[in-house]
Amino acid sequence: MAGKHNSRYSVTLAVVLLVFSSVPTVATAEWLGATRAQMGTEVRVYLWHENKEHASLAAEAVFTEIARIEALMSTYKEDSEISAVNRDAAMSGVPVGDELYELVVRSLDISVLTRGAFDITYDSVGQHYDFRAGEHPDEDTLRASLPKIDYRLVKPRASDRSIRFLAAGVRINLGGIAKGYAVERGVAILRQLGISNAIVTAGGDSRLLGDRRGQPWVVGIQNPRADDEVTLRIPLVDEAVSTSGDYERYFMEDGKRYHHIISPVTGEPANGVQSATIVGPDAVMTDALSTSVFVMGVDSGLRLIATLPDYEGIVIDADGRMFYSDGLRPPAAE
């Protein structure tokens, strides 16, 4: 497939942001890089400012903001708002704060846009996977839980900012959109603090702020079947980029790869794609769209991207072939 912004490609920033070093905190001249474990992944901030002390305070402000979002939206925290929803929303509407309410509503809108490929109720089945322990739901559990994957079972009510489930056993998880939201919020914090050149990354989701002081940021798409190998390097300026891949959290059993990107149709890991990367102006959308395109597959996924003027994508299929959205041009053969 031929391509849209000729110099714009997507990335898997969990692997590449070539500007980062491996140490937790680095300051060179006016550039500062810092890394912290948050949201079940590695969060990175890399920024420039004339004052090193101000740069350090700005990076810390980003980590503080992401910690706040994690406390609100993590299903692993029993006292989070989303955990309260999962516990009680099948019995009655659960009032939540504006932030969680709006992100749930936006998630449901994206479900409509993607015809259910993006579905925050995937966790009705997804909760039964344990990728560290190499466990997946048995047939009985899958059969009982699968009907609960249906975004239409989630009913937000604007009058009291509450969320209700229409069936017992429904469970929501914002894992396909919350990191994009977090890095978008991180960049908003940096702008407020006078930072003009930065990157905030959480796993495979990243928001680039400006350029790298007169040069584009160089990012890359990981080879899904070769650790630390970059398939494609691309220059980007002031973009959001997200990659979803079957190599991020997975285990193998009897020759089958069980990964964390669950198909809402089957309740099992989506197949046919190794990775999907999306570029666009908003990390919330690129995060959700990378998951959606992965689930939809090459043809349907890129047809969706073709309807969204501000977004582009690159998909690597199960055979390792690379496909581009209409607005991207494949690199010239050497």
From TrEMBL:
Keyword Repeat: no
Enzyme class: transferase
Gene3D superfamilies in UniProt: ApbE-like domains (3.10.520.10)
Highest rank taxon of the organism: Bacteria
Cofactor: binding details: Magnesium. Can also use manganese.
Sequence positions that bind Mg(2+): 176, 287, 291
InterPro entries linked to this entry: ApbE, ApbE-like_sf
Keywords, comma-separated and alphabetical: FAD, Flavoprotein, Magnesium, Metal-binding, Transferase
EC number per UniProt: 2.7.1.180
Catalytic activity: L-threonyl-[protein] + FAD = FMN-L-threonyl-[protein] + AMP + H(+)
Matching Pfam families: ApbE (PF02424)
Cofactors that this protein relies on: Mg(2+); Mn(2+)
Tagged with keyword Magnesium: yes
GO molecular-function terms, A-Z: metal ion binding; transferase activity
Family note: Belongs to the ApbE family.
PANTHER family assigned: FAD:PROTEIN FMN TRANSFERASE, THIAMINE BIOSYNTHESIS LIPOPROTEIN APBE
Official protein name in the record: FAD:protein FMN transferase
Source organism per UniProt: Woeseia oceani
Native organism taxonomy: Bacteria, Pseudomonadati, Pseudomonadota, Gammaproteobacteria, Woeseiales
